[in-house]
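Exercise 7b. C-alpha cells:
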C-alpha cells in the first residue's frame, strides 16, 4: 500500500506520543517493503523544526535531539519536490483557507492516488470532508 505521511506522523517516529505505536508500525512496514511511504520534500524541515521545539520544551535533551535527527535522516520516506506540487497546493490553500504546507501533502496524495496519513487533528477536522483520503493515524491498525 502507498501512503503519504506528514510531519505529525514522522515526529512520532522520534518522540513518543499518542499513537506512536501506529506510526512506528507504518515505518516498520515501509522499511520491510510492505508499504511505500511518500512525502513532499518539506518533510525533513518540518520534522526537524518539531524536534528542535521538543528540545526547547524539555521533551528531549540536545544530545538526544541530535541523535534523533540523525536517525530520522536515515529513514526519510521517498521525497517529492514541493515545487511540482505548489500550484495545486496553492489552489487548495486559497479555496479552503488553510496553510499551504498542509496542502502540499494533500496535493501529493491526490497526485499519487493514495491516502494521506496524519495525526494533525486540525487538518482532519477542517479538510477530511472535502478530501476523504485524509486518514487519521489513530484509525490505522
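Sequence design result:
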Amino acid at each position: 500500500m502507498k501512503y503519504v505521511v506528514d510531519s505529525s506522523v514522522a515526529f512520532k517516529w522520534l518522540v513518543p506520543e499518542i499513537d506512536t505505536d501506529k506510526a512506528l508500525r507504518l515505518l516498520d512496514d515501509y522499511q520491510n517493503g510492505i508499504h511505500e511511504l511518500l512525502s513532499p520534500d518539506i518533510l525533513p524541515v518540518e520534522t526537524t523544526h518539531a524536534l528542535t521545539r521538543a528540545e526547547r520544551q524539555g521533551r528531549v535533551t540536545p544530545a538526544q535531539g541530535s541523535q534523533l535527527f540523525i536517525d530520522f535522516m536515515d529513514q526519510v520516506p521517498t521525497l517529492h519536490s514541493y515545487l511540482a506540487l505548489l500550484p495545486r497546493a496553492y489552489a487548495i490553500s486559497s479555496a479552503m483557507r488553510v496553510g499551504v504546507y498542509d496542502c502540499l501533502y494533500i496535493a501529493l496524495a491526490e497526485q499519487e492516488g493514495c491516502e494521506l496519513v496524519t495525526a494533525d487533528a486540525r487538518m482532519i477536522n477542517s479538510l477530511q470532508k472535502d478530501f476523504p483520503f485524509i486518514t487519521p493515524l489513530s484509525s490505522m491498525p
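Instructor comment: The radius of gyration is 15 Å. The chain has a mean pLDDT of 97.
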